[in-house]
UniProtKB/TrEMBL annotation:
<dbReference type="GO" id="GO:0009060">
    <property type="term" value="P:aerobic respiration"/>
</dbReference>
<dbReference type="GO" id="GO:0015990">
    <property type="term" value="P:electron transport coupled proton transport"/>
</dbReference>
<dbReference type="GO" id="GO:0016020">
    <property type="term" value="C:membrane"/>
</dbReference>
<feature type="transmembrane region" description="Helical">
    <location>
        <begin position="154"/>
        <end position="175"/>
    </location>
</feature>
<feature type="transmembrane region" description="Helical">
    <location>
        <begin position="298"/>
        <end position="321"/>
    </location>
</feature>
<feature type="transmembrane region" description="Helical">
    <location>
        <begin position="36"/>
        <end position="58"/>
    </location>
</feature>
<keyword id="KW-1133">Transmembrane helix</keyword>
<feature type="transmembrane region" description="Helical">
    <location>
        <begin position="202"/>
        <end position="220"/>
    </location>
</feature>
<feature type="signal peptide">
    <location>
        <begin position="1"/>
        <end position="21"/>
    </location>
</feature>
<dbReference type="InterPro" id="IPR000883">
    <property type="entry name" value="Cyt_C_Oxase_1"/>
</dbReference>
<feature type="transmembrane region" description="Helical">
    <location>
        <begin position="509"/>
        <end position="530"/>
    </location>
</feature>
<feature type="transmembrane region" description="Helical">
    <location>
        <begin position="240"/>
        <end position="260"/>
    </location>
</feature>
<dbReference type="GO" id="GO:0004129">
    <property type="term" value="F:cytochrome-c oxidase activity"/>
</dbReference>
<feature type="transmembrane region" description="Helical">
    <location>
        <begin position="341"/>
        <end position="358"/>
    </location>
</feature>
<keyword id="KW-0679">Respiratory chain</keyword>
<keyword id="KW-0812">Transmembrane</keyword>
<feature type="transmembrane region" description="Helical">
    <location>
        <begin position="266"/>
        <end position="286"/>
    </location>
</feature>
Length: 598
């Protein structure tokens, strides 16, 4: 039997390719590999952006201190006025009386003459007439006329998502500590093998999915200029998805799982509930868009509806068993894993950004054409890249090559989307310190470029040989699912909830959430990237496996530190959410609203 399998591999041309590739690959001059160099450059971009944001924040703090000093000087001047003689005060009052009688001619604030505003009518001015207004941290009475039922749906979806985020990352933190203290417990239901899929599935299907759908309900209604087709369907999907997480968690901790690959550990009866919830959501979204009051379908709806369609198809393909024998299961696993990340989470979230980013900046998206280009190239390239996780496996060499080529093709939608978002933010860079949401959008956009490009570089054969099956992959998944998806979702949540509820969170706590999450992710990411690289090189050099485990210990410590900061940020976020939505139903609109107007 063994000789038969070897003969098949030899005949298919797979075995010679694997053996020759592994014979040629060494650790000599590994730093000169384009994939390695490119990854270093991408990490440097993240570091530079972090320094820039920190510099802006410090500069704002210094300006605030200067303004306080100016106010003190003004108070001292007021005290000086009080101490003046009556004659001196009379002169000042006469000047003030003349100023009150002054009437503008209409040309005082234009032309080449010096600016004159003796009556103090100007509150703020801008030098760039194209510079848009933006959401500031200061308290505002701005609110959106939104049906109470829609508000309730958005808040409950995000609320459930926040709950699963805290629970999921609490489990993730516990797992991270197991790397340092593996003897922490001896209970089977607390073992790493059972809790790890609990963590990933809870934050995937619980946190990210529910938050996306909740934010999506507002976008679908708003951009279609109509109300949600069926509110009861939204609640049915909410119950089904949450029930999926509860039952799936219980099954996994009891040792009942699908036995398949990553992210599809839930058994099919449990995942069927999630699929039904998605189908209900898709029909509800589709019907809402179909009954829209405007002719155009906004590009956000393209992304959102496409993500739902692809994920429904994915749920079917990932769980039907009759074509998943042997290597077929490996192919399906690569497809399922990457389609789940790219065609569900990434595609849906990008659709949200195409609405929430322009609405936050009060300006249109930079280029509709770039958005269309990003959409169709995402649909084209992302569907064929899953096999790059199994380079040098017994899969046909041509199939691996196709995955690598299509991974490189992902540069097109990534560059198009990143350019669109950054150009939309152009002119608002100096407002980062004045906005709740712009820092989250900026970090999400940067990680969208860095994480996606790094994934394309990691698909190359040499970098794949060094990094795959090491802790580097864990760093990459957090760079994308956390750095992109989570930061974009937080941006959308902070952008819309204050407008729906009329309550804004504390500036200090939003800042704490941002910096704890960002620094925690950076520590987590860099430590596992460095450790994963050394582990891969150790394997290539043929060192004993236990040596790679020992060398990872200091990097696992930093992993735990970064995870602790991320968990702390989620607790702050949960409190901010509670503060924003507490008592929201008591806030009444000035008039009854049946529909949403753009």
């Amino acid at each position: 039997m063994k000789k038969c399998k070897m003969a098949i591999l030899l005949f298919s041309g797979v075995l010679p390719n694997i053996l020759s590739a592994q014979d040629k690959i060494t650790t000599d001059n590994w730093l000169s590999s384009p994939g390695i160099i490119g990854t270093f450059v991408l990490i440097a971009i993240v570091m530079i952006i972090a320094i820039v944001i920190l510099f802006i924040k410090l500069n704002t703090y210094i300006d605030k201190m200067k303004r306080r000093q100016i106010d003190k000087n003004r108070m001292a001047f007021d005290d000086e006025i009080v101490a003046m003689d009556e004659g001196e005060i009379d002169v000042i009052l006469e000047k003030r009386k003349a100023a009150l009688k002054y009437k503008l001619k209409g040309d005082e604030l234009s032309g080449d003459s010096e600016v004159s505003d003796e009556k103090g009518l100007v509150h703020q001015f801008i030098k760039d007439p194209n510079n848009a207004f933006f959401d500031e941290k200061k308290k505002t009475s701005l609110s959106l006329e939104t049906p109470l039922e829609l508000k309730k749906i958005v808040i409950y979806y995000i609320g459930a998502a926040a709950l699963w985020l805290v629970l999921g990352t609490l489990i993730g933190q516990y797992l991270g500590m197991k790397f340092l203290w593996p003897e922490m417990d001896s209970q089977s239901w607390l073992s790493f093998g059972r809790l790890r899929p609990v963590h990933t599935n809870m934050v995937f299907w619980g946190w990210s999915s529910l938050a996306m759908i909740g934010l999506g309900y507002f976008v679908i209604a708003r951009t279609s200029n109509t109300k949600i087709y069926n509110y009861s369907w939204a609640w049915s999907a909410w119950r089904l998805i949450n029930l999926t997480i509860i039952l799936g968690t219980m099954c996994l901790m009891a040792g009942v799982n699908n036995g398949g690959g990553e992210y599809r550990e839930y058994i099919w009866p449990v995942m069927l509930l999630f699929a039904v919830g998605l189908i209900i959501t898709f029909i509800n979204f589709y019907k809402t868009v179909a009954t829209r009051k405007i002719s155009e379908i906004y590009i956000s709806n393209w992304f959102i509806l496409a993500a739902l369609i692809w994920t429904i198809v994915l749920s079917v393909i990932g769980y039907l068993p009759f074509y998943q024998d042997g290597l077929g299961e490996t192919v399906i696993q690569g497809y399922y894993m990457h389609q789940g990340v790219g065609m569900w989470f990434m595609t849906f979230t990008l659709g949200l950004v195409y609405y929430y980013l322009p609405s936050t900046l009060n300006k249109p998206i930079y280029s509709y054409s770039l958005g269309v280009l990003a959409f169709w190239t995402q649909m084209l390239f992302y569907t064929m890249i899953g096999t790059h996780h199994f380079v040098f496996s017994p899969l046909p060499w041509w199939l691996q090559t196709i995955a690598i080529v299509f991974s490189a093709g992902m540069v097109i939608p990534v560059v198009a989307g990143t350019t669109n978002f950054l150009m939309t933010m152009k002119g608002s860079w100096n407002h980062i310190s004045k906005s709740y949401v712009l820092p989250f959008f900026l970090v999400g956009t940067v990680f969208y470029f860095v994480g996606s490009m790094q994934g394309s570089l990691q698909a190359f054969r040499f970098t794949n040989f060094v990094w795959h099956f090491t802790d580097f992959n864990v760093a990459h998944s957090h760079m994308t699912m956390y750095g992109i998806i989570a930061f974009f979702l937080w941006a959308g949540i902070y952008a819309i909830l204050p407008k729906l509820t009329g309550k804004e969170p504390s500036q200090v706590l939003v800042g704490a959430h941002f910096w704890l999450a960002f620094i925690g992710l950076f520590a987590y990411m860099i430590s596992l990237m460095a450790g994963g690289t050394y582990k891969g090189l150790s394997w290539i050099d043929g060192e004993p496996f236990i040596e790679s485990v020992i060398l990872m210990k200091p990097y696992w410590i930093w992993r735990a530190v970064g995870g602790s900061l991320m968990l702390a940020s989620h607790l702050v976020f949960a409190y901010n959410f509670y503060y924003m939505v507490k008592g929201y139903s008591k806030i009444k609109s000035s008039r009854k609203v049946e529909e949403i107007t753009v």
